Structure formats: C-alpha cells, structure tokens
C-alpha cells in the first residue's frame, strides 16, 4: 500500500518520519510512505527544537475557513501529483485535517468512493467542520470566544432549544483569530450524524492532553480500532507498542482489501 503521511503542528515531514519509524519497521517493505510538509511556518512543538532542525510548519495556524480550504487544496494537489494513495497516516493536526477532509467528502459526495481505503490517526485532535460557521442564510451559527492566554475556547450554539457552552482547546500553538474572523467549530460525534466508513486505527497516548479529542474522533468512525500507549502527545518508541500498533494497522489493511 501507498500511504500519505501528514505531520503534527510545529513539526515537519522529517520529524513525522522519525516518529513513525518503529511502527514502519514492523509493517514490511511492501508499503510506501509519502510525507508532506505543511504550508505555514509555526512555533516548534514541545521538545522538538532541541532535537530536530527547522523549519517547523503546520497545515493551518488558525481554524478559519480560508486556512482550512488552503490545507484541503494542498492535500488535493499532492494526491493529484503523487497519488494514488491507498491509505493515510496523520499525527495530531495532520490527523484532524484528514478526518475533516473525509467527513466533508461524506457530506458533499455521499455516494462517491472513499479517498482512501484505510486511515491511521496518531494522537489526532478533533477535526474542524468546513461548513460550521454559517447557516443557509449566511448568518453566524454560533459564537466563539478564545482566551489568548490559555487557548481555551468557549462555543455557544444558536440552535432552537439548545443553549450551552462547551469547553474545548485549540491544538498546539494555534494563532488567535483576527477581528471579524469566525473560527470553525470542531466535529463531535454527539451532533454529527455522518461517519468515516473506512477502517481506522486510533493511536492514543494515555497521558496526552488531547486524548479526550482522540477518543471523540473514534466516535466519528464506523470501523475503528484503538491502540494505546502510556506516554503523552507522541508516538512511543517501545518495541512491544510498535509491534502491537503495526499488527492493528496490518489487520485494518486486510479488512480494507477484503472490502474491494
């Protein structure tokens, strides 16, 4: 299989290649991995700058419609120029971007073939909904307030019979929106009826502050398998974990091929 691989915010393709190397060693030489760099410069992720050289990049620095559409265009361009791809790996923001693209496709092309046969989400955060900031009349559907110090986000829905505030957190060093910019809201399985239907593997760190978002992403997938490790927002290099993750990925690949 050929896999498209998208890194996390504040890293780059070389870093993700190093992060995945223990798992890839167990997957066999028949698989090919294509790593794609983000399009915007970013502050380095935690513990990265002292180990890996810059540049450090991301696919979007803030969750606005323009930036997410540009990230979509990047993935589409890579798929057109270097595809086809059978599967996809995504770490953190890279995983959120892939999930967003897959869910958007289910909305706009519900009967079309899936873009990939299998997806592997590593420490992924919840995806953003490209259509979430306006209703059919062009009015704001919700109001978002971002704490510039902590990055905490409060979202108030404007939906008949619903008036609640949900606490969430933007991933990594997400830039605050400028005046007049309306951030997209994240998908959540509690309010999104669509599901990613291809086999998915979800690698989650038990001490990852984004583990709740990774777990919620599981609920947005129809055929999901979870693999955990004891560390944080990273891929453990433990041999037993790498072997377990590779076995789960290989099983997902087999299920995907069986569907054809």
From TrEMBL:
**One of the record's GO cellular component terms:** cytoplasm
Biological-process GO terms, alphabetical:
secondary metabolic process
Could you list this entry's UniProt keywords, alphabetically sorted.
Hydrolase
Q: Write out the GO MF terms.
A: hydrolase activity
Domain (Serine hydrolase): residue spans on this chain: 2-235
Would you indicate the residue range of the signal peptide? none
InterPro entries documented for this protein: AB_hydrolase_fold, FSH-like_dom, LovG
The organism sits in which domain of life?
Eukaryota
Q: What is the protein's name according to its record? A: Serine hydrolase FSH
Species in which this protein is naturally found: Chaetomidium leptoderma
């Amino acid at each position: 299989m050929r896999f498209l691989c998208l890194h996390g915010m504040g890293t780059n393709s070389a870093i993700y290649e190093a992060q995945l190397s223990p798992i890839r060693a167990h997957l066999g030489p028949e698989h090919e991995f294509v790593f794609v760099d983000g399009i915007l410069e970013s502050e380095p992720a935690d513990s990265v700058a002292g180990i890996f050289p810059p540049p450090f990049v991301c696919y979007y620095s803030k969750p606005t419609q323009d930036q997410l559409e540009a990230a979509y265009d990047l993935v589409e361009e890579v798929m057109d120029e270097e595809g086809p791809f059978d599967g996809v790996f995504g770490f953190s923001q890279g995983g959120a971007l892939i999930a967003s693209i897959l869910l958007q496709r289910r909305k706009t092309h519900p009967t079309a073939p899936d873009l990939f046969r299998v997806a592997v989400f590593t420490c992924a955060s919840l995806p953003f909904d490209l259509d979430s900031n306006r209703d059919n009349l062009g009015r704001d559907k919700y109001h978002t307030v971002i704490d510039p110090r902590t990055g905490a986000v409060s979202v108030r829905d404007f939906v008949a019979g619903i008036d609640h505030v949900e606490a969430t957190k933007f991933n990594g060093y997400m830039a605050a929106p400028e005046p007049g910019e309306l951030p997209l809201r994240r998908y959540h399985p509690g309010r999104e009826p669509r599901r990613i239907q291809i086999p998915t593997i979800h690698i989650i760190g038990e001490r990852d502050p984004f583990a709740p978002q990774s777990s919620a992403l599981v609920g947005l997938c129809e055929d999901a398998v979870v693999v955990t490790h004891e560390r944080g927002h990273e891929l453990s290099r433990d041999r037993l974990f790498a072997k377990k993750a590779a076995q789960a990925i290989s099983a997902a690949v087999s299920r995907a091929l069986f569907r054809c």
